[in-house]
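Researcher: Here's a chain I'd like modeled. Treat it as a single chain, no partners, no ligands.
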Amino acid sequence: MFEDLFTLRSQLHEGRCRAVELVESALTAAHGPARSAFLRLFEAQARAAAWAADQARAAGAPSGPLAGLPVSIKDLFDVAGHPTTAGSRVLAEQAPATCDAAAVARLRRAGAALIGHTHMTEFAYSGVGWNPHHPTPANPATAALDPATPRIPGGSSSGAAVSVAAGAAWAALGSDTGGSIRIPAALQGLVGFKCTARLVPLDGCLPLSTTLDTACAITRSVRDAVLLHEILADRTVRRLPRPPGRWRLGVPSTLMLEALEPLVARRFEAALSRLSAAGYPIEEFDLPELSELPVLQTRCNFPAAESWAWHRTLIEAHEAQYDPRVARRIRSGQDMRAADYLDLQRARAQWIERVQARIAGFDALLSPTVPCVAPPIAQIAADDEAFFRVNALLLRNPSVVNFLDGCALSLPCPPAGDWPVGLMLWAAAGHDDTLLSLALAVEATLWPEHASRPA
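Model: Modeled as a single isolated chain. Structure tokens:
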């Protein structure tokens, strides 16, 4: 298991390693086991950032909270001097960006060594992580358990998660529109935090849905998730230390627990049992509003309508260069009416108000992040019906939080060394600090080896 950022920062401070060594290790992985996780590498920039951090540290000068540590960037965010192609062929000849996206600039200012642009679903439009234009990176966590069967990484931040799981980065910048951070984190045994969308600026990031898009990160621990969020949102998380009995947790039975694979159901129940035994009050309850989501989005949905608005000129001229599955989803917004779009906005606002009222008594809700473990790549590569079925299943639970405009964190369910299963903690908009504080406590309960690590 790779160390997390906090451990590495301590080793750097104590002189037990140097940032240049960590960057070289990351680049070795990026050229080796994580090769397909990257669409392009920023080797010179990464080495320069690491060298500068080491020099500053040697001189006793500040080097930033990331101190030359390797971080990968989803190919949706502008990085100065490099093109941004969103995993597509249609933008392959795009001119290099002249400045960093806002989120990238904050990472660079924090001292991050930016390793490269990572693989992704074309234009971020699926939760599977498959892209016909580039080799799909196999899931590193499942490869250790089933080497003969390459399995999906999850998406759309597929390469982002693989870069972290395979040791080519210690954190990854990605985006989450319907689960694109939490899905690959859950399928690969990592931590993915989707903050309240408005907290991190999206300037310099290619949009999928301007209503739902969120810039956020994948990490190896919850405390790293807190650190990355503080950098990306340019704010300090207010810690709320409480004993287990002072939290109130809810488990919505509507929708979120349906059609779970037996392994996911067992691991989720085992996690709840461990939390209950540790003193966390947990209440299962009905949340009927979740059953309304398919009806609310029958005539119109935000990703289709908003992606069509952005892509309509490009796709009319270059549709043959698009992934057909992505083009199909984008074109589904072509006939959506403005009246239906405005109706959906109003219906969403009313739905959010009703859900918030129903969950107001809970500090957070608990659900499986996704209902299944990672299926084989071959299962979805050549079969459209299987692809869309798996995609819908992966998006079902996490997309609830995006429609709610809420915040959520996925962390692994024990035990280590088994098929990765994600536990999702989620809450309404603006409850990020409460959620992160709870996640730190839950992680320490489920993974006692983390309890001695100060956050």
